[in-house]
TrEMBL record, chains A, B:
Residues 2-155 form the CYTH domain. Gene3D superfamilies: Hypothetical Protein Pfu-838710-001 (2.40.320.10). Pfam families: CYTH (PF01928). It comes from Lysobacter soyae. PROSITE patterns: CYTH (PS51707). This is CYTH domain-containing protein.
């Protein structure tokens, strides 16, 4: 178990692409529906993710803001595939690009499938008040906007957002 | 991942106690609410269980009847305790008693806490049509009665059942 502190941002340009050091394709789904977590009948989201040839089960508490309890366990690939088939909502597909910065690492999620067109940058921080430098391609923060949660993207993908939602973080 | 085939019965007397070969105290909770599973907004239940000094995460599909997909993973004890605190509904507490019978093993769950008074016998079978001998203490089958599901007992425990529900399986 760990405490995850994560901030999420939009991007202002494609300039980040030149800084990518590695990328990984990911497919993930959720065993719970988003409503259970957003309405508070459930305290955690339970995610199944295949990253390349590795599979993981992830449990995250639903506290608002950037800080969450997080639990992660390796899964046999056959289990992950069977569990993905038991997920509800859409499968969330993306390529995650890694851009190291000092001791930290930007993760740029470039979504595909029903979320194609959406790109966000995430940064996991060691402390709530940890300092980090803002790259020139970094845009508005969306850490607290629920519709950018991957859990919500599984239920109401980017392709179903209104033009206003797509334009206005 | 495995397929679990399990049948559940009430008991007609205490005669089973003389046949118990071992017993284990268990505390468990669910990360999802029962409604999500019974209403079908979610396809699985996710259970955290501490059995003596061992802790496990268990995921079970919600198909009706005796057959389910089941996934089980060991948990670090500290994770299990943190996850139990994130569960919804009541904590289900019981002592599980084991009574071997040929290649099979009866599991008698004697509940305590908010489910005190309830005792059920479960038998896991290798095949749907597997033969098994009915012990003289075996009562009515309740495999298909949702209120006996442990998931339901976490939401609406035995102490909240009506007298008619307690009397009539």
């Amino acid at each position: 178990m760990g405490i995850e502190i994560e901030r999420k941002f939009l991007l202002t340009s494609d300039a980040w692409r030149a800084q990518v050091v590695s990328s990984k394709r990911m497919a993930q789904g959720y065993l719970n529906d988003a409503a259970a977590v957003t309405l508070g009948t459930q305290n955690v989201s339970v995610r199944v993710r295949i990253e390349g040839d590795v599979a993981k089960l992830n449990i995250k508490s639903r506290e608002a803001g950037p800080q969450r309890q997080e639990f992660e366990y390796d899964l046999p690939m056959a289990d992950a595939e069977a569990l993905l088939a038991l997920c509800v909502g859409h499968r969330v597909e993306k390529v995650r690009h890694y851009i190291p910065q000092a001791e930290l690492c930007w993760e740029i999620d470039e979504f595909s499938g029903t979320n194609a067109g959406l790109v966000v940058a995430e940064l996991e921080l060691p402390r709530l008040d940890a300092h980090f430098d803002k790259p020139e391609w970094l845009g508005l923060e969306v850490t607290d906007a629920p519709r950018y949660y991957n859990l919500m993207l599984a239920e109401r993908p980017y392709s179903e957002w209104t033009a206003q939602e797509q334009a206005n973080p």
